[in-house]
Amino acid sequence: MAKKRYWLVKSEEDVYPIDTLEADETTPWDGVRNYEARNLMRDEMKKGDLVLYYHSNANPPGVVGVARVASSPYPDPLQFDPESRYHDPKSSEEDPRWILVDLAFEEKFHRKVSLQEIKEHPELQDMVLVNRMRLSVQPVREKEFEVIVGMGCR
DNA sequence: GCCAACGTTGGC
DNA sequence: GCCAACGTTGGC
């Protein structure tokens, strides 16, 4: 089996917080409509990879726990649903445009690791989270993952 | 294939 | 709620 990789996903706290993921146990990571994020889910994420779970639009924003990639990639069903805000009329079942994976709850931190702490930590300066806005699925280095989990479990 | 207009993300 | 960043769309 390939070496495990690490990721970070953003979820709006008032839309799908980690407590809801914990209650659901597993959920399709639907509604992602950014090609770079899609490519990561489609091509790079592997079942069993660990994922930092970040609350955006929170006060303060930050990492609140860990999820796990729980499926192979498959088409986002919402793109075919005309009722959904994520409906994509340019996509088709034969040639689906939007691909996702399932995420499963892994653990909730004892405390939130805030964006501000991450920005201030010397070992986390190169994180995509710190350097780029607007990417809701992003890769994380093993060291960065360990540092943040260490902070959240302390 | 350029680029202005537009829409969304997401911190503050 | 504001607005900067920045990805996407569509006219040309």
Write the layout of secondary structure elements.
Blueprint: E1 6-12, H1 18-24, E2 26-28, H2 35-44, E3 50-56, E4 62-69, E5 74-75, E6 99-100, E7 102-114, H3 115-120, H4 128-131, E8 137-140, H5 142-152
Parallel strand pairs: 1-3
Antiparallel strand pairs: 1-8, 2-7, 3-4, 4-7, 5-6
The structure holds a DNA duplex (12 and 12 nucleotides).
Describe it.
This protein is of the alpha+beta class and 154 residues long. The protein has one domain: ph1033 like fold (Roll). The chain has five helices and eight strands. A six-stranded mixed β-sheet has the order 2-7-4-3-1-8. Strands 5-6 form a two-stranded antiparallel ribbon. The longest helix is centred in the C-terminal third of the chain and has 11 residues, at 142-152. The structure holds a DNA duplex (12 and 12 nucleotides).
